[in-house]
Amino acid sequence: MLFKVEMDVNIPLDYDPARLDELKAAEKALSQELQRAGKWRHIWRVAGQYANVSIFDVESNAELHDLLMTLPLFPFMDIRVAPLCRHPSSIHEDDR
Ligand SMILES: O=C(O)CC1=CCC(=O)O1
Prior knowledge:
The protein is α+β, with helices and mostly antiparallel strands. The protein has a single domain (2-84), classed as Alpha-Beta Plaits (2-Layer Sandwich). It contains two helices and four strands. A hairpin with a 5-residue loop joins strand 2 and strand 3. The protein starts with a strand and ends in a 12-residue tail after the last strand. The ligand O=C(O)CC1=CCC(=O)O1 is lined by residues 7, 9, 27-28, 31, 52, 73. Belongs to the muconolactone Delta-isomerase family.
């Protein structure tokens, strides 16, 4: 199942910079692990914003929920999720 996930990151201005660096490093490591596993298909920075648009490929709504909850930056994120399905004009056979 494919989902568009929009993540806005809002870090408090007085948050400890060293702790923030740790969280960002952990977030990057987990994101890249999930990308290698094929679960996190795409991640794009939204220009001019501390935000991304991502495409996830997971088995269920519950798997997506559990995965998003494990993100180290989850406590600082506003997340919007939209389910995706194949567009009838798509030429990509592997789109589902
Ligand atoms: O910087 C972001 O958009 C938040 C984020 C998600 C995965 C990652 O590595 O950073």
